[in-house]
Design goal:
Blueprint: H1 2-18, E1 23-24, H2 30-47, E2 52-61, E3 64-72, H3 88-92, E4 101-108, E5 111-119, H4 126-133
Antiparallel strand pairs: 1-2, 2-3, 3-4, 4-5
Length: 146
Amino acid sequence: MARRAVLPLLFLAVPARAQQHAMDVVRGDPDRRLLLEAIRPTLMRATDGPVRFTVRELRRFGDFAYGVLQPRRPDGEGTIDWTATPYRARVESGQFDNGATHVLWRRLAGGWKVEEYAVGPTEVVWTQWQRRYRLPQTLFEPGGQQ
């Protein structure tokens, strides 16, 4: 009799543990395009031109997503001249990581919204976001996803 009571409790514990894992947002996932389109206008304004992204990391956990993107120009030149942007002083002082952009999105009724972002940070910015939004570390660290 005691064995039957324990077995259902074990099944209840598995989903809670599984929910702590972030999932990669891969090519072909409809959210991938929506996430990138949500940050694009911000980076177009900051770089005074069109951008495309090389996705380094992109994961989702519930109604949050986190990504590390490398903005580039869509034409043949590819790279962005960060000294011609508002980030010039940081570039010249060595406090800029080549435009790597960290983004935290939140899914709302109308779609994905950029909640936080940092362009070219030279420090780990996501630890503050993790605490502020009470998100699991697996959302922010590669290799921690299922």
